Amino acid sequence: MVVYSEFKKTSVLALLLGITFMTAFMIFILSIINTPDGLWVNIFTIPVFIFFLVLMIRGELKKKAMKLTFNGDTITAAQYLGLTKPREYSFSEFDGYQLVAVLGEDREYEFLILMKDGKKELVVSEFYYKNFEELKQYISKHCSFLKRRKIDYWEEIKYSLF
Predict the structure, then answer these.
(1) Of 19-23, 27-31, 68-72, 126-130, which gets the smallest average pLDDT?
(2) Tens of pLDDT, residues 123-140
(3) Helix (H), strand (E), coil (C) string for the chain
(4) With 90 as the cut, is the pLDDT of residue 157 above it?
(5) Does this model's pTM top 0.85?
């Protein structure tokens, strides 16, 4: 049985709009304060904006927004919304998976982390996939469960960066 990941259009749109907005806002702020008096503001503002752009691009597009294909004992993953060259994994390569619940204000959402040699290798997020439950069931049938954790948004940012 072959299972393909299906992106939620609203999640992908929100991510891309967020990156676009942050870039446009940074350019706008820099154009306003591009004076000798604004030098200290620039020194602070540029690294902050670059940090958040890297967080969104590296943490979300690279690690979570992947095009996934499950076929038998094989996972094919293409990062950056499927725009990169796919990488193939066998479920036997993984130590297992962790189920992580992110506590929001009004609800909780989950993501799975497939662990390889004690490190995070693939992340499957409920935020990005409309068929998350199907992907979760497929993974649970082919990979051993390691643990379940509950985290808050700050811990999720840490997960995204490292």
Answers:
(1) 27-31
(2) 998 888 999 999 999 999
(3) CEEECCECHHHHHHHHHHHHHHHHHHHHHHHHCCCHHHHHHHHHHHHHHHHHHHHHHHHHHHCCCCEEEEECCEEEEEHHHHCCCCEEEEHHHCCEEEEEEEECCCCEEEEEEEEECCEEEEEEECCCECCHHHHHHHHHHHCCEEEEEEECHHHHHHHHHC
(4) no
(5) no
